[in-house]
Amino acid sequence: MNKTVLISGSGRGIGRAIATRFAKEGYKIAINANKSKDELEETKDYLISFGVPVLVGQGDVGNYEFCKDFVAGIKNTLGSVDILVNNAGISHIGLLSDMKPNEWNEVINTNLTSLYNLSSLVIPDMVRKSAGKIINISSVWGNVGASMEVAYSASKGGMNSFTKALAKELAPSNIQVNAIACGAIDTEMNSFLDSNELASLIDEIPTSRLGSPEEVAELTYSLATGNDYLTGQIISLDGGWC
């Protein structure tokens, strides 16, 4: 396998599971995280065990200059990006009236501005090759909104619109853009819930369980390698919850 995949926010959780899924298939892999340096290095070592080349980029994908340098480094060492998975994301729990401007900006930059940064940098090579996949890891809150998570919901709603619009823009170049609207997935993002809150959440989900990062990874891989006529879709992976 000579193709290169870039996964943002891939030091742990969903991002790491996605990187692992592609590593098992022999893809060249670029991974990224902003703050979790040790986890990122551990993920790199794990991925290398599958016999694939791995490039690490530690930095904020909400920062354009970092993304520009990172993508250039990928191109020089692994080749141009064939598949981009925009997975980097942070949440903020609390009333909007209590939220500080810097907190709002951090959520929007990480969850939404990063889509522009990375997509705009990899698209030219995809257009040149008339092939490419962009997969955005979204949330059901981008579809319906969540109380106490206004910034997160807004960023994911923006991601969904970004996906639909960019898919139309790139369809003539045979580049597909889709998003996965995740429900409650068993990751550290939900670690703020105590046992009672977690049980109540699970009671609301028809499948009576949380989703796994590996299930998100499997759907991501399917979108990256599957039907070229499927584009501009927001695919819910939520156990029938929303």
From TrEMBL:
Q: Which UniProt keywords apply?
A: Lipid metabolism, Steroid metabolism
Coiled coil start-end: none
First and last residue of the signal peptide: none
Query: Which Gene3D superfamilies does the protein's record reference?
Result: NAD(P)-binding Rossmann-like Domain (3.40.50.720)
Q: Sorted alphabetically, which InterPro entries does this protein's record hold?
A: NAD(P)-bd_dom_sf (IPR036291), Sc_DH/Rdtase_CS (IPR020904), SDR (IPR050259), SDR_fam (IPR002347)
Q: Which Pfam families match?
A: adh_short
Record's keyword annotation contains Metal-binding: no
- Stored SUPFAM superfamilies: NAD(P)-binding Rossmann-fold domains
- Kindly list the residue ranges recorded as spanning the membrane: none
The answer on whether this UniProt entry bears the keyword Chloroplast reads no
Concerning PANTHER family, the annotation shows: 3-OXOACYL-(ACYL-CARRIER-PROTEIN) REDUCTASE (PTHR42879), 3-OXOACYL-[ACYL-CARRIER-PROTEIN] REDUCTASE FABG (PTHR42879:SF2)
Sequence similarity: Belongs to the short-chain dehydrogenases/reductases (SDR) family.
Task: Name it.
Answer: 3-oxoacyl-ACP reductase FabG
Q: Which organism is it from?
A: Catonella massiliensis
Record gene name: fabG
